[in-house]
Amino acid sequence: MNLMSGVEQEAAVNQAIEPSIKMRGEKVSVFYGDKQALFDVDLDIPECQVMALIGPSGCGKSTFLRCLNRMNDTIDICRVSGNIQLDNEDIYAPHVDVVELRARVGMVFQKPNPFPKSIFENVAYGPRIHGLTKDRTDLEEVVTTSLQRAGLFEEVKDRLDEPGTGLSGGQQQRLCIARAIAVSPEVILMDEPCSALDPIATAIVEELIAELRENYTIVIVTHSMQQAARVSQKTAMFHLGNLVEVDETDTMFTNPKSQKTQDYITGRYG
Amino acid sequence: MTEYLPLLMLAVAAIVYFAGRSRSMAVVGGEISRLHSRPAYHGGYVAIWTVLPALVVHALWSVSSGSVINGMVTSRFADELSALNVPEVEAFLRDARAIAFGGIVGFRDATKEAAAEVFTSLQATSNILLIGILIVLIGVGFYYSFVRVSAQLRSRHTVERVITWTLLACSAVAILTTIGIVLSLVFETFRFFQRVPFFDFLFGTHWSPQSAFEGAGREALAGDNSKIFGAIPLFAGTFLITFIAIIVAAPIGLMSAIYLSDYAGPRFRAVAKPLLEILAGIPTVVYGFFAALTIAPAFRGFGESIGLSVSSESALAAGLVMGIMIIPFVSSLSDDVINAVPQSLRDGSAGLGATKSETIRKVVLPAALPGIVSAILLAISRAVGETMIVVMAAGLAANLTINPLEAVTTVTVQIVTLLVGDQEFDSAKTLAAFALGFVLFCVTLALNVVALAVVNKYREQYD
Amino acid sequence: MTDISQPDAFRLTKELARERRQAQINKRFAAETRFKYLGLGAVALAVAFLGLLLSTVVFQGLPAFAYHYVKMPIAFGGIKAGTDPKTVDYDTLYKDAVKEVLPFASGRKDRRVARGLFSAGSVILLQRQANETPELLGTEGDVYIPVSDFTDLYLKELVAKNDVSRPSVSLTISKADSGYILTAPAGTFGRAISDVRQAIGDRAEAQFRELSSLRKNLAEQARIAGSSSAEAVVQKAKEATEALSSQVERKQAGYDALIARQTASEINEKMDAILPSLLVHAAGGTFKATMLSSGKVEAVALVPPSAEGFTGAGVAAGDWTLRTIKVAESNRKFSDKEVAMIEKLRSEDRIERRWNSIFFGYGASREPEMAGVWGAVVGSFFTMLVTLAIAFPLGVSSAIYLEEFAPKNRITQLIEVNINNLAAVPSIVFGLLGLAVFLNWFSMPRSAPLVGGAVLALMTLPTIIIASRAALKAVPPSIREAALGVGASRIQAVFHHVLPLAMPGILTGTIIGMAQALGETAPLLMIGMVAFIVDVPGSFTDPATVLPVQIFMWADFPEPLFQQKTAAAILILLGFLVIMNAIAVLLRKRFERRW
Predict the structure, then answer these.
(1) ipTM of the complex
(2) pLDDT, tens digit, for every residue of B223-253?
(3) Which chains touch A (3+ CB pairs under 8 A)?
(4) Are C29 and A97 in contact (CB under 8 A)?
(5) Do C415 and B171 touch (CB under 8 A)?
(6) Distance from CA of A244 to the nearest CA of C (A)
(7) Closest CB from B342, B350, B355 relative to A71
C-alpha cells in the first residue's frame, strides 16, 4: 500500500491531469476501549473525485470515514492514532478545532436526519451558525443555490416553510446534502447515503453525487458494489479493519489484485 | 374487639386449609396423581368457602353498623334532639359515643349519658349478632366444601377464579380512591356553594374566613359570610409563589440536565446525579424548616441591611425553597426528553460544524421543546399542590400583591389553617377548605392531563 | 452543475466561507465556554443548595444529641427501702438537693435563680425514675437531673460565649465596704479593658449614627420653618426644631462623654449592664467587676469565697482565673449570676455531658428540655406498618392484574390513566379524602395511626403499582411461555415464576414508596395527627403523631432548644430515609438482572 501511494504521488507530480491529494491518512488506527477497529490504514483521497469505501459489515469503513471529520470525537471511549491530513495539515493536531474542520469536511448520514424545522431553516442552519452571510438576501441566495445544487429546489420551492421532516426519504436525503453543501465544504463524507432509500431515489442521489464531484471531494461508504462502480473513480476495499486494496474503480472491478477483493466483489461473502 | 375478628378468621382459614388438603390426600389414599387438582388447591378451596363469605359479611357489617346504630339512637332520642340542628346532632352523637366507648368528650349531660348507655347496649347486641352470623357462615361453608372434596373436584378452577377476581378488586381500589376523592370534594363543595355564591368565592377579593359568623342567627348574616370567602388573593398568592419557584427551578433544572447529559464526564455524572436526586427525596417538612428558619430570616436581614423591608414570611423565601425542591423534578424530566432526541440529529448538527452548545440550543432544545414544556407543567402542578413549605414559610394573611418581598398566602396554606384543630364539620369555614381542595384538584389534574398528552404526542414523534 | 443564478447575486465561495468562518470562530467558542459554565454553574448551585440545607440541619441538630446533666445528691438514701414511690415528697427532696449543691443561694431571688438552672421537669422526672425503679429508694448516690435549656446552651457555648484566661501573677483580695477589692500588678486586666473600650466605642458609634439622623431631621425642620409661608406650618416646624435641638444637645453630651471615656488616659471604668462582664474566680468564689482599672478591680461576690480560700493573703499565680463575657448582660438570657453558679458546679465536677436519653426516650412536652422524639418515632412506626399492610398487597395485586391478566380494553386503559393521575394528585387532597371518608363517613378515630396509615397507603398505592408493573414487565415473556408450556395455569405461571423474579424490583419500588410516605406531613395534618400528644402510643388506634408532623410542630416553637431538637428530629428522619433508600439501592444492585 505504501507502494501504491508512492506511485500515485509520483503520478501527481508527473502528470498535471492527475488530481492532487486532498486528504491523506497514514497509519490510522482506531480503538474502541480495548478493541481495535482499524489497523494502520494508509489511504489518500484525491481532490474532486469520488472515492468509494467498500467492504463487508464491520470492516471499519464507516469508522475510517468518521475519522476524516473527527465525528468519532463524540464517542467517549474512541481513540484514534496515526495521522490524517487535510491539505497537508494534521487534523488531529492540538490547535485544530473540530468546528472548523467539520465545516470544511461535511457529512451526510446513513439515515436522512433533517432537523425538525422548516426546509429553509434546515439549509440555512449551517450558514447561520458559521456566520457566512451578512444579510437575509445573501442567506436566501445561499439556500436557493444549495437546494439547486442538491437538485431539490424545483420540488420544494413553493413550500420552503414546511417542515423538512415532511419530505419523502429521497428528498430528505437530498435536503441533508443541500444542508451540507450550504456551508461550502471542501470534502463531503457520505455514510451509505442511499441505504435507507428506494431504487428511484437512489438513482437521483447517485446522479447528484456525480454532479457534485465537479466542486467537491467526495468520500462515500457503500454496501453496494454496483453503486461504487457507478459513482466512484477510486475504490478502497476494507476487511476486518485493514485496508486490503485501493485502486481506480475500473481496475478494481475488472482486475482486482487481492483474492479477498475478488471474493467480495463477486459476492462470495459480504 | 370485633376489629380483631378478621385475624381470628385468618387463623381459621389456615386450619381448614390443612384440613382440606389432608382430606384430599386421604380420599385418593395418598396417590396424588389421581387428583384433578393439587392438594394445596383443595385446601385453598375449603379455606375460601369457609372464610370468604364471613369476611365479606364482617366488612359490610363494620362499615354499616355505625350509621345503623346512630340512626337507632337518633330515633330513640327524637324528642330531645328535635330542637337541635344537624351539626349539633352530630356533636351529640360524637360525645355520646365518646362516653360509651372512650375518647375525648366535649361536655356531658344526662341525655348524653342515657344515649351512651343505649349505644353500649346496641353495640353489644350488634356484636353478638355479628358473631352468631359469622359462626353460622363459617360452619356451613366448611361443611359444604369439605364434603365436596374428591378426586374429581376441580378446585383449582374455583381457587384461581377467586384469585383473579381478588386481583381485579385490588386494582379497582385505585379507581375507588379517585371516586372517593371526587365525591367527597364535590359533595362538600356543593354544600359550600349553597352558603356562599359561586362567583363570590371564585372572584371575590376579600378573604378572612376567621371572621365567619357561626351559630345562632347566622342565616341573617349569610350575606356577610359570602363576602369573606373571596379566593382571588389565595389564587394570586399561589401563583406568585409558584412563579418564583419555577423561575428558580426551570433554568437551574434544565441547565443541570443539559450539563449532565451532554458535558459532564461519567465520573462527574455518577456523583452529581444522585446528589440531585437526594434533593427530591428530602421530605417537604425539612424544606419548610429550612425556609422558615434559615432562608426567610437571611432574606429579612439582608433586606434590612440594604434598606428594604422584607416580610419574615416573604413569598420570595417560600418560592425560592420550593424552587430548590422541584429542581430535581425538572432536571430528571428534562433529562428524559433531551435524551429522547435522536442522536442522528446531534450528529447532523455536529457534522455541519456546529459547536455543542449550538447543537443544543438550536437543534436539541427546539426538538425537545414540547417535552420540556410538559416537564415544566408537571413542575407547576407539583408547586401548586405543595403544602408544607408554604405552611411553614408563607403567611396566613391574604394579601393581594405581586411584591415578592411581602407575605402572601396560598390555597394549601388556607386548607391546612381551616382544617387543623377541631372544627364543626358543617361550618362554612370547613366547607371552604373542601372547595379550595376541589379547585386545587381540578387545576393539578388539568395540568397533568395536558402535560401527559403533550409528552405522549412528543414520544410518538420519535418512536 | 451550472450556476443559474444572476451574475451579480451573492456567491459563497469556499474562500469567502473560510474567511467568514474565521471571523466568527472566537466569538462562537466564547459562547460555547459560557454555555458550558452556565450548565456547570446550575449543577453547582443545586448541589450548593443541598449542601447548605444539610449543613444547616446537621449544625443545628447535632448538639441536641447530647445534653448536660447535673449530679444531684437526692437523699433517696434517707427513705426506707420498699416505701411506696407514690408517697414520697419529691419536691422537698429536690429542693434540699439544690440547697446542698448551691448553699450560698439563700435569698429568695437567688433560690429562684438556682432552681432555674435545672430543668423545670426535674421533680416529675424524679418521680418517674422512682416509679420505674423502686430500688432507687433507700440507696445513696447521685441522681442525674437535666439542666434547663439555657444552661445547656451556655454549656454548649451557644449563649454567653466567654474567654477564660489564667494570669501568671498573684492576686490579693481584700474586703471593702460594699464588696471586695482585687489587686494585681498593673496591666493584668488589660485585655478586659480593651474589650470594654471597644464596647464603649461601638456604643459611641451607634450614638453618632442616631445623632446624625437627628441633625438631618433638624436641618429639614429648619428649612421648612424658613421657607414655608403658612403660619401654622412654620409654628409647628419651629416647635419641632426646638424639641429636636434639645434632643441633639443631650445626645451630643452623651456621645462626648463616651468618647472621653474611650480615650481617657487614666483607666477607671465603671462596669454597667450594657458593657461586657468580667468575672474573677478565686479563693473558691466568683467576683464580678464593678469598677475596673489596669491593676485593680472593685467587685461584688456572685459566689462568696470559701472560708478556707479567703484568708486575706494573696492568691498564687495559676490559682485564679479571669473570665470575660463580651455580650453585655442585658443582651443575653443567661446572667452573670447564673454563669457563676454553673461554673461553681462545673468546678465541683457535678456537670456531665451525656447522651440525650430524654430526647430519645420520651414523648412530646411543652418544656423544651423534656421534649422527646420517641413518641413520634413509635407513631411513625405504627403508621408505616398500617401503610405497608394495606399498600403492599393491594399494590402488587393490582400490578399483577393489570400487567398479567387484564384484557387490553378501554376499562384497563381508564385504570391506567387513573393511576398515573392519582400519582400526581397533591398529597393534601388525600388528607381531605381521609377527613371526609374515614373520619366523617366511617367515624374512625381522629389522630390514629390506623387512619393515617390508610391515607398514606392510598397515596403510596400508585407509586407501588407503577414500580411493580415495571418490574413485572421486565420479566421476559419467555419465562411465562416456558411455564405455560409445561402445563402450568396462568396463575401458577405468574405466582411461581414471574412474581419471584420481579420481587426485587417490586420491593425496591415499595421501599421507595414507603420512604415517601414516611416523610409525608400534609395529609396527616388533615386527619388530626397534629394534636399535642405526650404519651407514647401503644396501639394502632391510640392518638399519635409522626416524625414529620412532630418536626412541623416543633419548628413553630420559639425556644432555641426546640429549634435544635427540630433539627435533630430531622436528622433522625433523614437517617431512616437514608437507611430505606440504601436498602432499595442494595436490593437493586444485588438482584438486578439483565435479560
Answers:
(1) 0.87
(2) 556 678 888 999 999 999 999 999 999 999 9
(3) B, C
(4) yes
(5) yes
(6) 34
(7) B350
